[in-house]
Specification:
A hairpin with a 2-residue loop joins strand 5 and strand 6. The protein starts with a strand and ends with a helix. The chain is an alpha/beta fold and 360 residues long. It binds iron/sulfur cluster (2 copies).
C-alpha cells in the first residue's frame, strides 16, 4: 500500500502547515537524523514573486527548514535550475524570496550549473544531487501546457542543469515522450527523495508560468512521488493520466490501484491549460479536424524586451531574432518552452479557428 498525506491550510501562516510537515518528517526521523547533507529542491522556475504561484512559496520552505532542524543536524543546501534564465540565478533567488530565506537560516544555495554535470544511464544531472543523502523535493502545484500538471515527479527535472533541459525537449518533441523521459530521470533518484507539495497558492490555466495564481489550500507529502501526484490529480477532479509523468510511471509497471490518501473534504477543481483542452467531437469528424485544431505560440512585439530567453529555450531554433522576434510556425513543435520562460508575458497562445469552435 502506497500512502499519501493530504491536508488543507488556510494560508502559509496557518499552524496546520508546520504540524503537517512535522507529522510527515516524524515518520522518517531516523533517516533524517543520519543524513550528512540534505538538498532542498523547491520549484524556482523563474524570477517571479511568490504571490504569482509559479515558485514554491518561501514560507512553505521555511516551515520545512524549521521542522527539519528538529529532526537533524545535517547540512542543508538549497538549489534548482531555473528555465532559460539559469544564468541569472541570483535574480531568481532574490525575486522568489529564497535569497533572504537562506541568508536568515544560514543555508548555502547551490546553482545546478556551477560544477561539471554528471551522467548516468545516458542522462545528465547536477552533481549536487549526488552530494545529498536525502533530497527534499518541495514542488509547487501547477498546471503545465505540455505535461498536464507539474507536481513532484516533474519538479525533479530541475536537477537537469541549464541548457541540457532544452536537449530533452529536442530529443523528445512529443509531450508524452518527454513526460516519460522525465519520469525515467526522476526514477534515478527515487530512493533518496522525500516529497512535499505546496498547493496552498497553486497556479492554474496556462501554467507553469503564464496562468494565474489560485488559492487551493492543499498540501501533500509522501515518500512516493508518483503516488502523491496521482492522489493530487484525482483530488483536482482530473483523470489520473492527465498528469503525463504518472502515465510514464504506469508505462514502466507502476500500479496506481493501491494508493491510500487522506482525503480532505470536498473535491477541488483547477482550470487546465488551453493546449490541454480536448474537443468533444463525433467520431466521423475527428480525423478531419485533428490537424486543424491547434494552439501555436506567437510573440507579442509590443511586450517583447528582446531578452532572448525564448531563443535560448527553443529546442528547434524556431525563433527568429532579427529586428523583431518571430516564431516560424513550420519549425515550431509546440513545446511551449518559450511561453514558459518569457518573463515579460510576451509569448501569447494563438488558437486555430476550429480550436475556438470546438474546444471550450
Ligand atoms: S518574447 Fe519574451 S523571452 Fe522572447 S525575447 Fe521577447 S521578452 Fe524575451
Ligand atoms: S517556438 Fe516556442 S513552442 Fe515552438 S518549438 Fe520553439 S520554444 Fe517550443
Amino acid at each position: 500500500m502506497k500512502t499519501v498525506k493530504l491536508d488543507i491550510a488556510k494560508g502559509y501562516d496557518d499552524p496546520a502547515v508546520v504540524s503537517f510537515i512535522d507529522s510527515f518528517f516524524s515518520r522518517h526521523a531516523g533517516r533524517l537524523e543520519e543524513a550528512g547533507t540534505i538538498l532542498l529542491k523547491p520549484n524556482l522556475l523563474l524570477a517571479a514573486p511568490p504571490e504569482r504561484g509559479i515558485t514554491t512559496h518561501p514560507l512553505f520552505v521555511e516551515a520545512v527548514i524549521n521542522v527539519l532542524r528538529k529532526y537533524t543536524k545535517s547540512e542543508l543546501i538549497l538549489g534548482d535550475s531555473p528555465g532559460a534564465n539559469f544564468g541569472k540565478y541570483e535574480t531568481v533567488l532574490n525575486k522568489t524570496g529564497m535569497a533572504d530565506l537562506c541568508a536568515k537560516h544560514r543555508i548555502k544555495t547551490v546553482r545546478m550549473e556551477a560544477s561539471a554535470p554528471k551522467m548516468k544511464n545516458g542522462r545528465v544531472y547536477a552533481p549536487a544531487a549526488d552530494k545529498a543523502d536525502i533530497i527534499i523535493n518541495i514542488a509547487k502545484l501547477k498546471t503545465h501546457s505540455l505535461t498536464g500538471l507539474t507536481l513532484c515527479v516533474k519538479n525533479m527535472f530541475g536537477l537537469v542543469p541549464g541548457n541540457a533541459k532544452v536537449g530533452y525537449h529536442r530529443a523528445h518533441p512529443n509531450d508524452r515522450e518527454l513526460a516519460y523521459n522525465i519520469y525515467d530521470f526522476f526514477s534515478m533518484f527515487e530512493g533518496r527523495v522525500l516529497n512535499l507539495l505546496d498547493g496552498i497558492i497553486a497556479h492554474e490555466g496556462d501554467g507553469p508560468s503564464r496562468g494565474k495564481p489560485v488559492h487551493l489550500g492543499i498540501m501533500a507529502a509522501s515518500d512516493d512521488a508518483v503516488a502523491l501526484d496521482t492522489a493530487v490529480t484525482r483530488l483536482l477532479g482530473l483523470d489520473e493520466d492527465f498528469c503525463l509523468t504518472t502515465l510514464g510511471a504506469k508505462r514502466k509497471g507502476y500500479d496506481t490501484s493501491d494508493i491510500k490518501a487522506d482525503k480532505p473534504d470536498g473535491q477541488l477543481g483547477i482550470k487546465i491549460p488551453v493546449s490541454k483542452r480536448v474537443p468533444i467531437l463525433p467520431d466521423f469528424l475527428k480525423s478531419w479536424v485533428s490537424d486543424r485544431i491547434f494552439v501555436k505560440p506567437f510573440i507579442i512585439s509590443e511586450k517583447c524586451i528582446k531578452c532572448r530567453l525564448c531563443v535560448k529555450s527553443c529546442p528547434v531554433d524556431a525563433i527568429r531574432s532579427d529586428d523583431e522576434f518571430l516564431i516560424e510556425p513550420e519549425k515550431c513543435i509546440e513545446c511551449f518552452c518559450c511561453h514558459e520562460v518569457c518573463e515579460s508575458d510576451a509569448v501569447g497562445m494563438r488558437r486555430s479557428f476550429l480550436h475556438k469552435v470546438f474546444v471550450r
